[in-house]
C-alpha cells in the first residue's frame, strides 16, 4: 500500500514541517507518494529537503510534481527534477529545464559528497554572486567573499559529518510576506547521521541525562563543539554565525527533532524548536536580506 | 635564508591545477604538508614568506589547516628554526586567519601591501608594546629594548624570549630582529 504525502501550496522552512509530520510516523520501507501537484512555490530549503526525504526512504518513493507549468518549469530550472529522477519514481509530466534563463538561481541544486564538490560549488558561485549580491541586494562588495566562505563551510558540514551525500542550493527571491524585501538563501540538506549522532561518536564524550537533539544543536552551533578532538574544529559554523550576524541574516539548523536558529529582528522564529517530527541528517538554511540603501 | 612560497602555486601543484580557492580541510592539509616538505628541504634557520596574493578565497577550515597548524608545528623552534611572514593577505583572508589564530592563542607577523608590518592574532599588551618598540629600533638586544621601553633589562629579556618562542622575532646571538626587518 502506498501512503500519499500531501505537499502544501507554499513550501518553505515552516510548511515543509507539514510534510515531515506525515512522513515521520511511517516505516522507512513503507512506499510513499509525495504529492506536490498543488504546490505553487517552494524555497531552496524545501526543495532540497524533499530530495533528502526521498534519499532517506528504504523503499523508493514516488513523486508527483506541480500541475502549473510555471511552477514545474521553475523547479526544473533549479535542478530539482534532474536529481529527483535519480531518487523518486516520477509520475505525471516531468518538465525539462531550459538553459540559462533563471537569474534568481545562483546555484542550482547540486550534490555534495566530497571535498572536490565543495571546490566546485565555490568556483561556480563566485562570479554570479558578485553581480547579484552587490548589484541587486546592495550588499557590500566585501560580502561576496564572505558569502562564498559561508557556503563552503556549510557544505563541508556534509562532507565532514553526514557520512552520506547531501544537496546545496542558492537562490534569491522576494520574501514579500515575512520581510517585504529580496533575500538570498543558501540551503544545505543531508539525510546523514545528524548532529546528535556525530557528537556522540566523539571519543570519551560524556552524555548527560538531558542529552538530546536540541542540546546537540546548541553544542555544535552556539558553542562550536565538534566530534573531533582537534581544537581547530568547529570553526566553520562559528564563521557562518559571524557572517549571518554581520549582514542581519538568519541561520537555522534542523537536525533530528530540533531546530536551532539565530533569529534577526525582522523574523519571529523561536531560537530553539523541539519535539519536531524526527528526520535524519541536518538541514541548514542561511538567509541574507537585501540591504536598504541609506538615503 | 629567506624563502618565498606562493600558496596558490602550491595549491595548484599539490591538489588541482584548476583551483584558485583554498577551501576544505583536506585541501588545507595537503597544502600545509607540501609547505612542510619544502621547509624540511631548506635546512637551517629560515624566514619563509607565505604569499597569499594569488589565493582567491580562503575559508575558515583551510585557514586552520594551512596557517594555524603550520605555526603550531614550528612554535618554540621545533622541529627546525623556522619563521613565517604572511604577505598578500586580503581583508577576507584575514577574517579566516584571525579566527584560526584566536582558537589556539597564536600570533603571526603580516606584511601589508604598503610594506607595513602588522602583528595579528592573540598578543598581550606587553608583548605588543615590546614588539612595536623593537620594530622601531629595527634590531636590538634586551638592554636596548629596555631603554626604549623604560623598563628593567630583565623585563625586556623575558619578553623578547617569549616573542622569540612565539616566532614573532628572530634571534641572532643576543640580538633580536622583528620579522620582515633587515637583520
Describe the protein.
The complex is a heterodimer of chains A (295) and B (183). By secondary structure, chain A is α/β, with parallel strands linked by helices. Chain A has two domains: 96 residues, 2-Layer Sandwich (Transcription Regulator spoIIAA), CATH 3.30.750; 193 residues, Histidine kinase-like ATPase, C-terminal domain (Heat Shock Protein 90). Chain A is built from nine helices and 13 strands. In chain A, a hairpin with a 1-residue loop joins β10 and β11. The radius of gyration of chain A is 18 Å and the shape is globular. The model of chain A has no long low-confidence stretch (mean pLDDT 90). By secondary structure, chain B is α/β, with parallel strands linked by helices. Chain B has two domains: 122 residues, Transcription Regulator spoIIAA, CATH 3.30.750; 60 residues, Arc Repressor Mutant, subunit A (Orthogonal Bundle). Chain B has seven helices and seven strands, in the order βααβαβαββαααββ. A five-stranded mixed β-sheet of chain B has the order 1-2-3-4-5. In chain B, strands 6-7 form a two-stranded antiparallel sheet. Chains A and B meet through α5, α6 and α9 of A and α2, α3 and α4 of B.
Secondary structure tally: strands of chain B: 7
Low-confidence stretches of chain B: none
Structure class of chain B: alpha/beta
What kind of assembly state do the chains in view correspond to?
Answer: heterodimer
How many structural domains does the protein architecture of chain B include?
2
Tally of separate helices of chain A: 9
Distance between the termini of chain B: 11 Å
Number of domains of chain A: 2
Helix percent band of chain B: 40-55%
CATH class of the largest domain in chain B: Alpha Beta
- Architecture of the largest domain in chain B, CATH level 2? 2-Layer Sandwich
* Range of helix content of chain A: 25-40%
CATH topology of the largest domain in chain B: Transcription Regulator spoIIAA
Shape of chain A from CA axes? Answer: globular
Kindly report how far apart the N and C termini of chain A lie: 61 Å
